[in-house]
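cron nightly-structures :: item 1 of 1
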Amino acid sequence: MSKLTDVPKRLLIGRALRSDRLGETLLPKRIALPVFASDPLSSVAYAPGEVLLVLSVAGVSAYHFSPWIAAAVIVLMFTVVASYRQNVHAYPSGGGDYEVATTNLGPRAGLTVASALLVDYVLTVAVSIASGIENLGSAIPFVVQHKVLCAAAVIVLLTLMNLRGVKESGKLFAIPTYVFVSGVFALIAWGAFRGFVLGDTMKAPTADFHIRAEHQGLAGFALIFLLLRAFSSGCAALTGVEAISNGVPAFRKPKSKNAANTLALMGLLAVTMFCGIIGLALATHVRMAENPATDLIDKGAAVGSGYVQNPVITQVAEAVFGKGSFMFVILAAATALVLFLAANTAYNGFPLLGSILAQDRYLPRQLHTRGDRLAFSNGIVLLAGAAMLLTLIYGADSTRLIQLYIVGVFVSFTLSQTGMVRHWNRHLATETDQAQRRRMIRSRSINAFGAFFTGLVLVVVLVTKFTHGAWVALLGMCVFYVTMTAIRRHYDRVADEIAAPETPSDDSVRPSRVHSIVLVSKIHRPTLRALAYAKLMRTDTLEALSVNVDPADTKALREEWERRGIDVPLKVLDSPYREITRPIIDYVKNLRRESPRDAVSVIIPEYVVGHWYEHLLHNQSALRLKGRLLFTPGIMVTSVPYQLESSEAAKLRARRRQEWNAPGSVRRGPVEKRTKEQTGKS
């Protein structure tokens, strides 16, 4: 990469960090909370609205079920948090649900969990950003009018921020996350004070609307199904809980304790905010509809397609603080920003999980290594690309995207907790200390209840959301599963194929003879250098090889060869159809057929150029030949480079880039000058 492209990279993501500075990127709890818990914390901005949207199918009268649905979500949240606290203590290495399922339930279960989490992380980015765009659009109409473009821009921005490193991005995300949490608690406290102490009547902007129910007076099984669907939508508040168990290695020591405390704090904050907004939505008479243009009735007429339905939290803030007030603006801005930043949970979880899967040979090895900012750059870019594609396909519509949501996370919840039950059973079989046994039995009970409850919710989610889009998430999981299985089979097959044998083989036995062939088109400096190099090799036979595509050129080559007295025999291959590659390949293969135990070394002179466009003008025949020869067993291909003058420009750019990358290089001066100074001092 030239300095021209390296400078913008350094300006965007910062200078490269040494590997021994990895410890400096570990997170304290105050930074880890917004980094890993921004998704469940921010979900209170859209999860209450999703509950009311589903209940609106049966009309406003069904809203009185929302507190009971909120209570069920609370129980589920505390169950999941308590269960995952056991996970982070038992498996602090960062594998999270994938490691738990693989260790205790087998590789197939682990791969199922990994597929579910990868899909869920992609959806987290798409849903969070789409919801943030809609919240911001309530204040800035331009944003919602061009929401796909704006969503794509936010994805690019978040990607660049995360490429700068986990700790640096965490510092950027901490302030808006804490402002959002403080704003929601201020909203709940002020709303409660106005309602219970001052006795004020607070009305949302939709309080006077009526809802045209699609199914009036639901009862029996239909009502139960509707409530279960509303509950499954409210479970969106639990997404991202598992990210902390995956990110334990990113915490400062003691890692497990800090991760468990962060998990507990996140659960407490999320539950309080979720319940508070649901309560205020009922108190201010918020009205939401799945099809607002036709189902929301204002003064006897439908509001029409021009109406923009604002999120629940925005309507509640307008009722409590007043539209356009300072606190309303602050909360609206913080809500939109924290929803954007909620995607950061996925930006930390997806690359880390991808690295672990790559280490286990389920994903390409490039995902395992860290980038020059000590972040898993390849995983970050892959996540951004997948989320961008999903955003474009679904038009950045959070209502459509959220139907695909939470399926994957409850698959991982259920399998992880089931694996933890088996984990405790295995340890209880050998543990004799009574205090430890009591602790393990208590932990097993928590995980067993978590497995049962999350499994039940998974069934509810699949039943109520399958036809609304959950099948797409399941299809994505299947695609990931099949792809990762195929990658693992490929790596295993290659590993078996290249494994060093215990007994001597053809690869370790010295060839009987080595035939060296120097490819020649005309006599020039690159050819003479290649011939000189070939003479230094310990070969049994050496010859120069050319192809007769133009009789006049071939004749001139023979005459020049004889005139110079070159002591290497020149062989010319006929080519009636003026091909170069095929005659050489056939000749080399024929040598191998005649002497299978011999090796053939093909030496190719190549130009080294300094500009990208020069590659189009040189070395094309050499590239084709190398590409074909690499597939021929027993053939060794050697390139002998010859540097053209333009290569000096590339060398200079590389030197400048090296000096640019070196911290403090501007202060220390050029490399040559520093070397002379050091030599003089010594």
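cron nightly-structures :: done
The domain at 514-644 is CATH 3.40.50 (Rossmann fold).
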